[in-house]
Amino acid sequence: METINIHKAKTQLSHLVDQAAKGKSFIIAKAGKPMVKVTPLDTPTGKQVRRLGFLAGQFSVPDDFDTMGSAEIRRAFGGEK
Predict the structure, then answer these.
(1) What integer pLDDT is reported at residue 30 of this predicted model?
(2) Higher-pLDDT residue of 28, 23
(3) Is the Cβ–Cβ distance between 28 and 6 less than 8 Å?
(4) Sign of torsion, CA 46 47 51 56?
(5) Considering its fold, how many domains does the chain have in total?
(6) Distance between CA atoms of residues 17 and 26, nearest Å
(7) I need a labelling partner for 24 at 20 to 30 A (CA). Which of 34, 46, 66, 80 fits?
(8) Pairing between β-strand 26-30 and β-strand 33-38 as defined by DSSP bridges
(9) Looking at the domain assignment, is residue 53 inside a domain?
(10) How far apart, in whole angstroms, are the C-alpha atoms of residue 1 and residue 40?
């Protein structure tokens, strides 16, 4: 990973940001001491974007969902025989 001094980073910021966006991370140093690491954001695009409700209408939840299997659960944990 390339280390760039802060002066060069200021003068070439646009170019460096473009490079980072393409996956080439770099470190900005001040007086030879590493200060920050610049890496690309993993922003989802297109089909990667998650949508709420995309399975709407494709399945249903039974009316007794909250009590399904309650007898078996009680027996398994000693509440009922």
Answers:
(1) 94
(2) 28
(3) yes
(4) positive
(5) 1
(6) 10
(7) 46
(8) antiparallel
(9) no
(10) 13
Q: Answer yes or no: is 70 within a domain.
A: no
Whether the per-residue pLDDT at 21 is higher than 80: the answer is yes
Token reading at 22: 């393409």
What b/e string do you get for 45-63 counting C-beta neighbours within 10 Å, with b at 16 or more?
eeeeeeeeeeeeeeeeeee
Percent of the residues in the chain that have a pLDDT greater than 90, as a whole number:
38
Residue 39 clears pLDDT 90, i.e. is over it: no
User: Which amino acid is located at 30 in the chain?
Assistant: K
The amino acid at 17 = V
| CATH number assigned to the domain comprising residue 23 | 3.40.1620.10
Question: Is 22 part of any domain?
Answer: yes
In a domain, 28, yes or no: yes
